Amino acid sequence: MTWGTIATWRMAHDGVLKAAEMLKNKETAGDAVESLINVIEEYPYYKSVGYGGLPNEEGIVEMDAAFMDGDTLAQGAVGGIHNVLHAVSVARKLSNEHYNSFRVGEGATKYATINGFKMQNMLTDRAKKRWQKKLLELKDESVTPYDGHDTIGAITLSEAGSMAAATSTSGLFMKKAGRVGDSPLSGSGFYVDSEIGGAAATGLGEDIMKGCISYEIVRRMGEGETPQEACDHAVYPFVKKLKKRYGKAGEFSLVAMDKDGDWGVATNVEFTFSVATSTEDPQILIAHPSAN
Ligand code: SD4
């Protein structure tokens, strides 16, 4: 039987190795995707996810995360949560709630505390130094604050045919307090349906949200497109449309996997990702912007 996982950026690879082992051992898609992301959240040297993530302009690491179960379509998400090591695990627990399943700010942090999640200061000395340096650089008004961001977004497919998706990010470096990106937003940062497939995004949240791109990819796969066709058709025309109608388009990088373990990628910047399936050894690959 087929299993598989795909996740954004080279940084995902250790998590993909872990998820691949779990999926091989017939563990669930939900457990595998959560573990994949937990590995990245714990590692202090990834500057855009979990511990060591870059802070907002006030020096606080505010994180966004989501979890979706492709069987039940249940979703949980957090926005602007702080002092929690595993934001994605909080999101997963929230996915069990029928009401109040997307919590932000203090409400999200309170939910994590009450439910016994590991709390810790997420600002490392390294991230604090980068923030202090950036504050100085920003005295020059021509410098843009928003140049450091990446999200871990992942899809898993279990041997039993279940799928799950999850994301976790500290969002845009130097973002305004309370700014929430696409990563916790259903259909924008992620979407998965075990009967079809899933997709996850990284890039400029403000622009990814304008096209609900992850849902669009899954919708297209549901109409019979391959993951690669769905990525190409959802991403490139939309980037073009944004440039025409909005005047510009930020970074878009999308990964997708269908219920058979086939996968696709589309990006408008050079983009690394990690993938493993029952027929392909785990590998880090690079995708280049298409001429489309
Ligand atoms: C956000 N999409 O908060 C995230 C950041 C990201 O590559 O993925 N950047 O907008």
UniProtKB/TrEMBL annotation:
InterPro entries: Ntn_hydrolases_N, Peptidase_T2. One of its GO terms (cellular component) is cytoplasm. Substrate binds at R179, V180, G181, D182, T202, G203, L204, G205. The record marks D150, T151 as: Cleavage. The active site is at T151. CDD domains: Glycosylasparaginase. PANTHER family: L-ASPARAGINASE, N(4)-(BETA-N-ACETYLGLUCOSAMINYL)-L-ASPARAGINASE. This is L-asparaginase. It comes from Pediococcus stilesii.
